[in-house]
Design a protein that fits this description.
Strand 4 (71-74) and strand 5 form a beta hairpin. Helix 5 packs antiparallel against helix 9 (176-182), helix 10 runs antiparallel to helix 11 (297-307) and helix 11 packs across helix 12. It is globular, with a radius of gyration of 20 Å. It has a domain at 237-336: CO dehydrogenase flavoprotein, C-terminal domain (Enolase-like, domain 1, 2-Layer Sandwich). Strands 4-5-8-6-7 form a 5-stranded antiparallel beta sheet. Helices cover 28% and strands 20% of the residues. The longest helix is centred in the last third of the chain and has 18 residues, at 319-336. The chain is α+β, with helices and mostly antiparallel strands and 340 residues long.
């Protein structure tokens, strides 16, 4: 790990000012000289590997604003402070009651030790675990723009079948993000250009020709909160994660589902897919396919076919299409059968 300067600002404005002093307007957060750190469960790993090389770390854990550490439940929904830990949110009674898909996605992620360290904001901003991104001897457009993508002709079993490009097929490995994008969450950020709100669906960018540009954030912007709007029928929701082993493994395929039902007829469906895409993936076409339909195995299968109609497999990951379809069908039927 290369040497770096470590600072602990005590309020948001000081943290933003420090970041602004050592970055330019066009710097990407993941490539900036000064970077924010909270739990450190992602950035510290990549610094040890030589993938991330900031000159300065700005530790946000000394920030005095209590709103950053609170889970606030109101009639308008749930507001998670950015520094709330994953484990705390997963165990929160009202989160489990009102939005089981959110609690599930957090509970099934990583290990207990990591969930107790990792912040919610850091979790949604985590970077890919693509083997070719993590190993600096391989070509990777996300790590070194224009160098190529070794995954294209390499072992790509873990890689994405949705949202990829000729420049990058690295999978987004998070779980929490699938629940957030399914439920129309909003992210609050503060930076040198003021405060703003970003629909969660617009936070992450598909790789296209610029896979090194991963989010819509500026280098001096701090995520301060994540809001999930009030959806009373989101009590009928779950997150299903399929992986090589039962714990401490990333998803090969996953589905976040929430359903508003009239008997067995779908009034509204919310669906997001994980483990199969380059970004948190809202399966809007699958939602549309279910609208007004009786939810049974046939309609769930048709929705799954629609969700993967644009999938682009590679040599070793074609199995993810069928696995993803079966995962979604199972998630839909299990959500239908929930007792709420």
């Amino acid at each position: 790990m290369r040497p770096f300067i470590y600072e602990q600002p005590t309020d948001i404005s000081a943290a933003v000012a420090l970041a602004s002093n050592f970055t330019t307007r066009d710097d990407q957060p993941t490539r900036a000289n000064a970077q924010f750190i909270a739990g450190g469960t992602n950035l510290a790993d990549y610094m040890k590997l030589g993938v991330a090389e900031p000159n300065r770390l700005l530790d946000l854990n000394r920030l005095e604003e209590q709103k950053l550490r609170q889970i606030r439940v109101t009639e308008d929904g749930i507001r998670f402070g950015a520094l709330v830990r994953m484990g705390e949110a997963a165990d929160h009674r009202e989160v489990k009651e009102r939005y089981p898909v959110v609690a599930d996605s957090l509970r099934l992620a990583a290990s207990g030790q990591i969930r107790n360290m990792a912040s919610l904001a850091g979790n949604v901003l985590q970077r890919t675990r693509c083997e070719y991104f993590r190993e600096t001897s391989w070509a990777c457009n996300k790590r070194v723009p224009g160098s190529g993508c070794a995954a294209m002709d390499g072992f790509n079993r873990q890689h994405a079948v949705l949202g990829g490009s000729e420049a990058c097929i690295a999978t987004y490995h998070g779980d929490f993000a699938q629940a957030l994008i399914a439920l129309d969450a909003v992210v609050h950020v503060e930076g040198s250009r003021g405060a703003r709100k970003i629909p969660f669906a617009k936070l992450h960018r598909q790789p296209g020709d610029t896979p090194h540009i991963e989010t819509d954030l500026a280098a001096d912007e701090i995520v301060t909160a994540i809001e999930v709007p009030a959806l009373p029928w989101a009590r009928r929701s779950l997150y299903l994660k399929i992986r090589d082993r039962e714990s401490y493994a990333f998803a090969l395929a996953s589905a976040a589902v929430a359903l508003d039902l009239d008997g067995e007829t779908v009034r509204e469906a919310r669906i997001a897919l994980g483990g199969v895409a380059t970004v948190p993936w809202r399966a809007s076409v699958a939602e549309d396919a279910l609208q007004g339909k009786k939810l049974d195995e046939a309609s769930a299968g048709a929705a799954a076919d629609a969700a993967f109609a644009e999938a682009q497999p590679h040599q070793h990951n074609a199995f993810k299409i069928e696995l993803g379809k079966r995962t979604l069908v199972r998630a839909l039927l299990e959500t239908r059968d929930m007792k709420v």
